[in-house]
Every structure is written in C-alpha cells, then in structure tokens.
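Sequence, please.
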C-alpha cells in the first residue's frame, strides 16, 4: 500500500569545454558506462569518442551546487574499438577495471581521493573479444562471455579478482546440468497398459521451435549473479539457426547446474533477484497459430527458479501507439534490496525506465509505480542501481549523470474514511478502510488517470501515463495527482461512509491545470480543502518542483468552489513561492490551508504568498522525508520520520525531541502519534504530553531531548507482527490498518484508540455508543464509571434510556461488581441504577434489579429474595413472571447459598420456592423443614441459625427461648467459645455469674491466668482468683486477695514459699527476696536469693537492717566468690569462641583469594529445580555447598513446598563447608559483642563488693577485672580486623523460591561484610581504679572490707 516518491535529484553535466581540454574531438564524447566507489563516495563515468576512452569522476552522494556539478578528468585509454563492456571499482584492491568489446582488460590504481595513481595497465586480453562481463557481489569473481558474432570461440570464462582463470566452458551444453530432475514416469501415459493396441499411438511428432525467437534479440549473451555470489546465470543463444534463447545457471566454481525450459520469444535480458528467489527475463509475445506464427507486440517479464522452471510472469503495459513504431525492453535491473524491478524500455520517440513492485505474493499483478524519462534528451545510455543505497537510481544520457533517490510513501487521506491510494501505472487504486478492507493487489475502486496529449507534445503519452506523485487531503478525501511535466488533476472522491449498496466512491473532476514550465521537474503535490463559509469552499493545491540550476519553488493555487456544486468554480488565485534550498519537501497541515517546507538540513519554513521564506520556524536534527504538522494546545507540533528510522517532534521556539530511533512508519490520529518500530511494536505517544515536554525543554539550555526525557516508558505499547507498517488509522472505527512485509493487511483495534473514542463518547453523553464499543472490544465496562463518576451518577437516567436492553444493563452491573472499584462506589452505583430501574418499570427490569442486589459489595441476597416475595404478592395471577425471576437469581447465585439465605429469613414458603426451582432433592430438605416447623418459634430460629453457623444469633434466640434452655446455652457457649456474647446477653441477670465462672475456667485451661483471675474476681470467686494470680506470678494481687479472703497465716507462709521459689526460678530474685521478707519472714532465704541474682548491695542492706550479721560470712562472702567464678567461666567461654571463629575467618579468606572457583563454585542455580540426576554418585557441585549434604544421590523426583522452605532455612545456617559460613561467623561475632556488654554490667556490679571484702576477694576482683579488660581489648581488635571492607549496594527482594535461590547464588559473590554491619562496642569506664594498683588496694583494705 505504499508508493515510490522522488526524494531528490542530482544532475552532473559533462561540459563541452571540459572535454575539449582533454581531446580535440570532445563534441562526440558520450557517457557509456558508470562505476561506483562506495568507500570514497565517488562515481566514475567512462565516455567514448573516436579511438579513445575517457574516464571521469564526480561526487557520489554529496549534493553539489549547480556551479560545481561537473566531472573531473582522471585518465584515458586509446583503443581502435572504444566500445565498453564493463567498468568496475574493486574496493578491496582500490583498482578501477575497464573491459572493452575488443577484449582488453585495463586497470588503474586509485588513490585516497579517487584519483589515478598509475597509468592504464592492460592486464589481459582476449583475442576473440569479450561480449559480456559480470562481477560477483563481493568482487571476488568475474565472469566473461567471449566470442565473436560469427559464433566462434563462444566460451564462459570464470576468473578471480587477480584475473586468474578458474574455469572455462562453452556456451552451449547438451546436458541439463548437475541438478537435472529425475522422472520415474509414475502416473504418465507411457507407464499404462494398453493391451493389443500397444503404445504406438502415444508417439507424437516433436514440436520445433522454428521462428519462435524475438525480433528484438541482439544475439549477445547476458550474465547475472545471485546476491550471495554462490551462483550466476548466463542467457545465450545457440549457434544453430532459429534456436531459442536459454538461461543456464552455473555455480561459483563454474559447473553447470541447470538449464531453463524452452520459452518462445525469450529475450536477452536477465537479472537475478539479489535475495536469490527468482531470475527475471523478458519475453516477446509469440503465439503459434494453425497456419503461421504471428506476434501481437506485447512484452512480458517472466521469472525462472534456480532449477530452470518457470515461476510466474507479468505483462508490460505497451502504449497505445502505431504497431509500426519501435518498442523493446533493453534491460532489467533489481534494486539491491530486491524490492523494485527497473525495466529500461526503448521506443521510437525515446527511452523510459519503469519501476515495478509486487505485493502479497501476486507476481501477475505488479504495481507500476514510476516512469522516468530523460530531460533534454531522448535516450538513456546507462541505467544502474547504486550498490549500497537501495533506492538510488543512477541514469546517464550522452552528457549527463542523473542520480534519482526514491523513498516509500503511503498516500493516506481523511481519517473519517481511511482512504488510501496506490499508484499502478495509469490507474490509482483506492480503498476506503472505514467500510472495506480489501487486500492488495485488489482495491475498492480504480481511478484512471491517463492524460490525453496533443499532437505537438514532445514526449509521447506512454512517458506521461504514470503520475510522479499523488496525495489525499486530510479532510473530505480530495485526491491530487501531478506529472513531472506539470500536469495537475484534482478529484473529489465522494467516498460513501455509511452502509449501502451503491458505489463505494464516485470521483468527479474538480480542477485541472497545465503549469507549462518545461524546465521545471514537478515532484510533489499537496491538496487541502476548507469550508470558509456557507457561500464557498476553498481548495488549495500546492505543487513543489525545481529546475536544474535553481532552488525549489512552490506553485500554489487557491480555487474557490461552490458549497453545493463542487464543479462550479467561483474564482481562482495563483502565486509562486521561491524557497531557499533544493530538494526539500512540503509538509501537510492536518487542520488548515497552511503549507510548510522542509529543507535538506531539516529546517522548517512557512510557505508565504507575499515574500520568500527568510527564517525557519524550527528544525529537525536531520531531513525527514515524511512529516506532518497540526495544532495541539494552541501550539503547532511538527512530527517527522528520517531515513535512519528516528522519529522527531518539535514546535516553534523549542528544541527537537527524539521519540524513538527505530521507527519505520507513523501517523497522527485520536490525539496520539502512532508509530511502528523495528522491534515489532506499536507506540502511542500522546501529543499533549509531547507538547508539554517540548515547552519544558525549551526553558533549558542543554542538548537535544532524548526518548527517556520524553517519558517513553509511560506510553501505551503493543506487540505486532515482525516488519509491520502503518497504512492508515480510522478513528471512527477505532482501527489501525497494518501491512505485513509480504503485503497482506491486518486490522487491529488498539486499546488507546478505543479508549480515546470511548472517552469522547462518554463526555458527549453518547452512553450507548461508548457501552457498545467497550462490549465489542472487551474493555471492562467499569471504565464508564471510572472516567467521570460524578457525570455518570448525574446521567443515570439517560444512560438507562439509551442502553434500554435488560441484558446490556445486567452485563454492565456484573462488570461493575467484578471491577476494582471501591466497595462504596460499587454499592452506590448499584443502588442508584436499581432505584432508577424501579422507578421506570419494575416489571421489565426485575432481572436487572436482582442483579444490582447480588453484585453489590457485600451482596444483599435478602433484599433480592424480599423482592421475589413482593413479586409473588403483586403478580399472583402471573406465576410465570415470579418463576422467571427465581430462575434468574438462581442463575446469578449459587442455589445452596440462596437456600441458606431464604432459610435465614425464617420464611419457609420462600425456602420452598427456591428449593423447587433450584431442583434440589426433596428428600434432602423436606424432613429438615418438617422438623423445624414442629419446634417453638425461638428455638426454631435457634436451630436455623445454628445450621447456618450464625452462632451468636443462634445463642440470642436460645436465650429468648426461655430459662429452661440455660444449661443447653452454657454447653453451646463452651462448644463455640461464645463467652463474650454470652456475657453481653445474660448481663444484669442471675445467670451472669455462672457465665463468668464458665468463662474464667476456660481462660484458666488456656493458661491465660491473668485474664482468668480478673474474671474470677468479677464473679466473686476469690479462691480461684488467688490460684490464677499465683499461676501468673502476680504476687502483689495474690497477697492482697489473701487479706480480703482472711487466709490463715500458715497458709500465707506456705503460699509465700511457693511463689518465691517460682520467682527465683524465673530469675526474678529481688521480687523473691521481697516475698521472703514480707510474707514468709525468712531473712536467710531473702539474702540467698539476692546473692544469687548478684544483688549484693541489697543483700548487705537487708543484713545490716534485719540481721543476723552471720549471714555476711555464711552467705554473702561465699556467694560473691561463686558469682566471680561464674563470670570467669563465661569470659573463658567467650574468649574460646572468639579465637575459634577468628581463626576460621582467616582460613576462609585465604581460600577465597587463593581458590576462588572452589570457594564460590560456577553452577547455575536456575537449573536446580530440574531433576535430571540419576542415582549414581556424582562429584559435589557448587549448589551442595549450601547444604553440605553427605551424598549427591537424587532421592526424590520433585521438591515439595515444605522441602523448599526447609532448604531455604538451611541456606545461611552456617554449617561448615557451606558458602554461608563466613556470614554466619560474622553474625555470631555480632551476638558475642552484645553478650560481652551484659557480662560487663554484671562485673561492674560485683567489683565494689569484692574490693571491700577479704584479701582473697580483693585478689579475685583484680583477676576478674583484668580478664574483662583483656577480653574487651581482644574483642575490639578482632572487630577491627574482621570489618575492613566498605559496604556497597543492597540486593532486591525476590518473590519465588527459584529467584530466592538465584539471589543467594549471586550474593555469595558479595563480601559478607557488606551484608553484616559492623557491631559497635560502647566505651565506658566501668572498672575500679584502685584495683588497677594492687599494692595500694592491699594496704588500705581491712580484713572484711572495713577500715
């Protein structure tokens, strides 16, 4: 669905004065061959004159100004026969090779700038002459066809780039080739049995090919290579008279592979498609009649496969001229990308080059896209495609080199119709994709565009039949076509949008014009239409062209048409705008008659009728052939796509932004810049977002905006088929038409386009249209509410009036109920819709009302069943309506749930109604219902609620049933643990304390002694409360209750000894001592408890206050030594742990440096969940280091979730030999620091007392203080040694077992110091200075610590 449009034209002229400076006979120099030096960007041209060949050069792709567009002489070669067969640049060896018809092979060495570094060197010669030459694609081989016209020494010679002969074979060969097909005759008549008749009747005279050759055949051979250089084909004619021409395929080693089947009228032209699929040739139509062979003059392009078999054809469109006129195909040329086939045609009046393309695998119908004819001359001398740039065609006349660059362009019209036009010779194929999706090469309408020329025209009609450019307006489908000679035609297509049986379109001619500038080549037309007022419509036609020596110019015509009769012209205005550059491009505006022109540098100018464009509005970073402009938020946005695949946008006064660097097509519709990329995605960039970013960017001074700055990640994207390109967008049908690389079309409805259309419909109050669009494209109907909840709630009445159908309303309510809206919103919407439906027609919308009840959050089943009761009372004469409603609600809700809900309403008639229509077995529910009917009312409800597991409600009904059921209520409370509900129900009754007692006993059994004690106190059961307090070790409350209960003193002491022992076992020594003193009166036990808890200060105070003093010698002094011994033992244990772990850390770190592979391992954790192991013992892998498993034998085929969790717990457990051992040791050292701090506090409490006791105690105090200080220093030094590496980044959390294990695999390469933070030891002066000087201490201390 794309057309070929001309991008630029570069003309280099061979001036007569330049030739005369080289040779006296310069006027007869004719360009006969060209060659391309891709590395240097140089094009060589060879001219022939009498007895001499001249070599010239010019810039390849650089657009030169007119005054510099000339050739530079390089060298010459004198020869009596100056006919040139081939001119080629060998890039690898930097040589220019010339081959002449006389058989000479001449070579020039090339310099860095393309100049000759040597004179002409004849490296070889063929005495019989060279008729054809073809170089391989990589210049590694060259094939020569030798011989003379008398069919002598006709050979095919294969050489390498150094001209060493690799193979030489004759043209003619009797065998088919190495790939000859084998036919065993299965199914043929020759293998059948014919009885006595025999097979004699099967013999038929052989057909001869006499006089079936083309009259245009020059009898010369042609050679062509396949794109990969593996094969080449040679088209030759045999030396036998009237023999047909055949195509033979050879390998790159020169061995014959296959021979083409005989084709009558086959011509010399042959071209192998670079992708290797087909070999193209031409055929002059020869038809065998009963008496004679006659020819109708038609030419065909025929295709062969590599095995020589035919593979399709298409006919060239011969002009309607006199049969006596000369007409033949001179050559075929494939573009390097195999997309375009150029056909060089010679005619009596001149030459033309036709560009053909195929689509959708239809070779019989190819598109004739362009016809190129020589300006200021009638013949081309050479035609060739540039070897590197696939859309660049290089043509030469006798004195000019013309470089035409083409690009692919889609001619898409108004979005309302989705009309697309495709050029096909003298027809434009039109398809409106809004109503019809016709795949190419077919179309909805074929518009003929043949121009009738007058007798005085210089160029015949066949050179003008194909327009050079067509375009469609963005409004009203106005089609314009322009020819290179200045003929312009504009049609109004009158495309039918709505359904119907009439014509899909009915084009009428609006306007035609002959610009009449013979020296101007017109290459682009742009049409737009605007309804100025009710009296007239304005049609604007802008035609872009240029001359060889001047910059671009735009011829603009404004035609005022009647608004009622389009063909009636009210007036016409015309002006010409001169532009500041050459080979630019017009950019259409989607909303107005304004025209913009883009220069080759990417600058954008407004085309003004009054003066020349002076300053640019904005610019793209590079030239964008495809561009468009439109208004967004009162600013004009320009979007363009460059040949490099970069999509840009810019506005006036802002810097350009790059949207993507891999786009292959784009369009603008529905508020989006829609683009397809080479990564097979469709991007939808909101134009409002682009303008906002461009405005913000214009305030900055940095470089160009990148795609990340445009927030491309927030755009909607969708995957499409590989190589998809945009054809058009139809917002009315929310469709995007894509064309695949093979040519077929696909129409999709992307979510952004659908949502934009739905939002517009909702904003305009077109609820039905928006609803149907969401339903058709499977969009959650909750978007109708989410878009504007307030507007929807206010317009519910109109929404229901437009939707109207019950099924649609039910679908809407169901979608709302299943959406992610908040529960309040869902309930509000359902209630509002339900109330509106009840107001309008309860009888019609009963199912929708039931749906509104059911889909609420939470569902209101009881209200729905209540509605059924209401219906049964209202329509008692129409039971079928009630029956339908019951069946519908059973369809919405599970029947068992409805049965339970009806039962919970205590209405047995409703229960029977649901059960009967739910097809429940009566044997299941009738006995149960009979049993319930026989019970008292409240007890009946108790049984129903108990059945429905509504236990609290059941308990309340059981209470209402009377006091006779109190014991059953107590059992029910205990069974379902309804203690709090029972207390609330029986509060302020005689049974309240009974319930409290049951509650307290239950708490006591659960060992919640504190709560149980409070409940027993509330129930006035103090004895049980005391037991509960004792179990909870709440000794204050216990002894307070013992005073209220008046417990005997002996029993109080017994309780005191019992609870004090429990407190001591829980290491609550001060509390135990307090109980011993206050309630047991036992000072010795109190002092003993305090000494055990290292509370010596309090113990000494108790002894001095209550006595006896003997406790100091009997309990405190020995106890202090015992505590010191415990602390010393704990310090030794911590010191031993530190030494072991520090030594192991040093060992691990040495291994990590010396043997990293062994330490870390290299196994992939992603493969750990795949059981491919056998029961054979295997070497340990890196994964076994996580578990240090003693064996590697596979025991199970699949890990369960429990096994996985167990495995995760093992990871990081610190077992020796695992990768997590180092981290485990670090964590253990961290815990050791905390343990050291606790021990330090205990030592600090003990030292003052050891200082004041005996000499033995003082010496022990010195020892324990020194041990503590030494261990503290040792621990500090160890921490500094261990934690030396700086911490880095953190690892993200994983969300699955496999990912967590993979994270562990990655984390093992991270230093554990980065995962375990360094512990901090607090610095405090906890020691006693006197103990650091032992002599002073011994002199000043008394025998018992007193002076």
């Amino acid at each position: 669905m794309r057309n070929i449009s001309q991008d630029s034209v570069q003309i280099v002229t061979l001036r007569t004065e330049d030739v005369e400076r080289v040779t006296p006979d310069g006027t007869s120099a004719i360009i006969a061959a060209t060659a391309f030096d891709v590395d240097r960007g140089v094009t060589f041209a060879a001219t022939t004159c009498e007895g001499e060949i001249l070599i010239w050069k010019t810039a390849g792709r650089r657009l030169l100004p007119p005054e510099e567009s000339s050739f530079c002489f390089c060298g010459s070669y004198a020869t009596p026969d100056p006919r040139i067969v081939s001119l080629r640049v060998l890039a690898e060896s930097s040589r220019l090779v010339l081959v002449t018809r006389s058989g000479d092979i001449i070579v020039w060495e090339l310099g860095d700038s393309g100049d000759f570094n040597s004179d002409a060197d004849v490296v070889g010669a063929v005495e019989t002459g060279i008729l054809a030459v073809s170089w391989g694609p990589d210049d590694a081989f060259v094939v020569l066809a030798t011989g003379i016209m008398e069919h002598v020494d006709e050979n095919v010679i294969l050489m390498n780039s150094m001209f060493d002969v690799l193979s030489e074979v004759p043209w003619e060969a009797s065998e088919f080739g190495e790939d000859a097909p084998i036919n065993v005759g299965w199914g043929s008549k020759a293998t059948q049995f014919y009885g006595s008749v025999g097979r004699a009747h099967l013999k038929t005279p052989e057909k001869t090919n006499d006089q079936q050759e083309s009259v245009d055949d020059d009898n010369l051979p042609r050679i062509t290579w396949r794109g990969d250089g593996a094969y080449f084909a040679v088209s030759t004619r045999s030396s036998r008279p009237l023999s047909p021409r055949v195509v033979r395929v050879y390998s790159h080693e020169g061995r014959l592979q296959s021979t083409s089947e005989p084709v009558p009228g086959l011509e010399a032209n042959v071209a192998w498609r670079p992708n290797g699929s087909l070999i193209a040739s031409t055929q002059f139509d020869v038809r065998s009649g009963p008496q004679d062979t006659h020819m109708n003059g038609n030419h065909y392009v025929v295709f062969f496969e590599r095995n020589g078999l035919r593979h399709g054809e298409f006919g060239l469109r011969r002009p309607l001229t006199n049969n006596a006129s000369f007409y033949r195909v001179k050559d075929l040329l494939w573009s390097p990308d195999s997309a375009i086939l150029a056909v060089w045609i010679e005619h009596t009046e001149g030459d033309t080059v036709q560009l053909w393309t195929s689509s959708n695998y239809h070779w019989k119908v190819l598109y004739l896209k362009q016809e190129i004819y020589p300006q200021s001359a009638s013949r081309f001398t050479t035609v060739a495609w540039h070897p590197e740039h696939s859309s660049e065609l290089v043509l030469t006349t006798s004195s000019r080199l013309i470089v035409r660059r083409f690009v692919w362009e889609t001619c898409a019209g108004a979005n309302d119709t989705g009309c697309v036009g495709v050029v096909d010779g003298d027809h434009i194929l039109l398809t409106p994709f809004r109503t019809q999706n016709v795949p190419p090469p077919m179309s909805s309408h074929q518009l003929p565009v043949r121009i009738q020329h007058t007798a005085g025209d210089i160029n015949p009609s066949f050179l003008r039949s194909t327009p050079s450019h067509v375009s469609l307006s963005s409004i009203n489908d106005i089609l314009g076509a322009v020819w290179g000679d200045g003929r312009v035609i504009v049609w109004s297509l009158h495309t039918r949008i709505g359904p119907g049986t009439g014509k899909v379109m009915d084009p009428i001619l609006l306007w035609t014009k002959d610009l009449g500038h013979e020296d101007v080549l017109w290459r682009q037309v742009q049409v737009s239409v605007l309804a100025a007022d009710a009296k007239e419509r304005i049609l604007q036609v802008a035609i872009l062209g240029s001359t060889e020596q001047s910059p671009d110019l735009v011829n603009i015509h404004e035609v005022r048409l009647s608004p009622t009769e389009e063909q009636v012209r009210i007036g016409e205005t015309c002006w010409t705008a001169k532009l500041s550059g050459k080979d630019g491009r017009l950019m259409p505006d989607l909303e107005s008659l304004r025209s913009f022109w883009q220069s080759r540098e990417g600058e954008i100018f407004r085309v003004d009728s009054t003066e020349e464009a002076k300053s640019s509005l904005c610019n793209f970073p590079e030239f964008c052939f495809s561009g468009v402009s439109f208004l967004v938020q009162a600013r004009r946005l320009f979007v363009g796509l460059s040949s490099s695949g970069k999509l840009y946008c810019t506005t006036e006064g802002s810097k350009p932004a790059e949207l993507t660097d891999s786009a292959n097509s784009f369009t603008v519709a529905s508020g989006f810049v829609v683009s397809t990329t080479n990564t097979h995605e469709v991007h939808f960039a909101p134009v409002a977002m682009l303008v906002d970013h461009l405005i913000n960017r214009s305030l900055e001074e940095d470089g160009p905006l990148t795609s990340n700055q445009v927030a491309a990640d927030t755009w909607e994207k969708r995957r499409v088929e590989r190589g998809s390109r945009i054809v058009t967008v139809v917002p009315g049908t929310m469709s995007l038409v894509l064309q695949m690389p093979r040519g077929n079309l696909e129409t999709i409805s992307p979510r952004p386009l659908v949502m934009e259309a739905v939002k517009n419909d909702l904003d305009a109050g077109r609820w039905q249209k928006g609803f149907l669009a969401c339903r058709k494209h499977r969009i959650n109907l909750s978007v109708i509410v989410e878009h504007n909840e307030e507007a929807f709630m206010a317009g519910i009445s109109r929404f229901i009036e437009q939707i109207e159908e019950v099924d649609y309303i039910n679908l809407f309510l169901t979608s709302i109920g299943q959406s992610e809206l908040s529960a309040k919103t869902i309930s509000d919407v359902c209630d509002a819709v339900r109330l509106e439906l009840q107001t309008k027609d309860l009888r019609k919308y009963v199912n929708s009302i039931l749906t509104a009840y059911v889909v609420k959050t939470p569902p209101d089943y009881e209200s729905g069943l209540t509605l059924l009761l209401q219906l049964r009372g209202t329509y008692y004469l129409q039971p079928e309506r009630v029956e339908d409603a019951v069946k519908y609600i059973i369809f919405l809700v599970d029947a068992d749930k409805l049965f339970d809900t009806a039962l919970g309403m205590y209405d047995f008639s409703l229960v029977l109604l649901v059960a009967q229509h739910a097809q429940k077995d009566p044997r299941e529910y009738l006995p149960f219902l009979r049993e319930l009917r026989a019970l008292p009312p409240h007890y009946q409800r108790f049984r129903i609620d108990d059945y429905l597991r509504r236990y609290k409600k059941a308990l309340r009904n059981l209470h209402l049933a009377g006091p006779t059921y109190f014991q059953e209520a107590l059992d029910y409370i205990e069974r379902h643990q309804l203690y709090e509900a029972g207390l609330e129900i029986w509060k302020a009754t005689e049974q309240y304390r009974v319930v409290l007692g049951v509650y307290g006993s239950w708490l006591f059994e659960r060992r919640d002694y504190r709560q149980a004690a409070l409940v027993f106190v509330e129930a006035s059961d103090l004895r049980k409360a005391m037991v509960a307090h004792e179990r909870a070790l709440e000794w204050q409350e216990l002894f307070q209750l013992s005073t209220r209960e008046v417990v005997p003193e002996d029993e109080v002491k017994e309780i005191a000894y019992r609870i004090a022992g429990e407190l001591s076992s829980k290491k609550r020594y001060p509390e135990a001592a307090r109980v011993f003193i206050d309630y047991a009166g036992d000072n010795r036990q109190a002092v003993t408890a305090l000494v055990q808890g290292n509370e010596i200060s309090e113990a000494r105070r108790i002894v001095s206050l209550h006595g006896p003093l003997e406790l100091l010698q009997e309990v405190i002094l020995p106890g202090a030594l015992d505590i010191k011994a415990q602390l010393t033992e704990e310090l030794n244990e911590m010191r031993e742990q530190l030494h072991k772990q520090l030594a192991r850390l040093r060992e691990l770190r040495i291994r990590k440096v010396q043997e990293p592979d062994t330490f870390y391992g290299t196994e992939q954790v992603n493969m750990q969940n795949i059981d491919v192991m056998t029961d054979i013992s295997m070497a340990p892998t890196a994964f076994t280091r996580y578990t240090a498993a003693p064996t590697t034998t596979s025991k199970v085929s699949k890990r369960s979730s429990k096994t996985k969790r167990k495995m995760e717990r093992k990871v990081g457990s610190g077992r020796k030999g695992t990768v997590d051992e180092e981290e485990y040791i670090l964590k253990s050292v961290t815990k050791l620091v905390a343990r050291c701090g606790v021990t330090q506090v205990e030592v600090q409490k003990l030292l003052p007392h050891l200082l004041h006791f005996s000499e033995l105690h003082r010496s022990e105090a010195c020892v324990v203080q020194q041990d503590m200080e030494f261990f503290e220093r040792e621990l500090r030094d160890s921490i500094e040694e261990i934690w030396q590496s700086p911490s880095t980044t953190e690892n993200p959390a994983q969300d699955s077992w496999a990912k967590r294990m993979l994270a562990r695999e990655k984390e093992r390469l991270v230093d554990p110091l980065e995962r375990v933070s360094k512990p901090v030891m607090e610095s405090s002066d906890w020691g006693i200075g006197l103990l650091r000087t032992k002599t002073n201490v011994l002199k000043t201390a008394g025998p018992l610590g007193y002076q």
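The CA atoms of residues 1164 and 1335 lie 67 Å apart.
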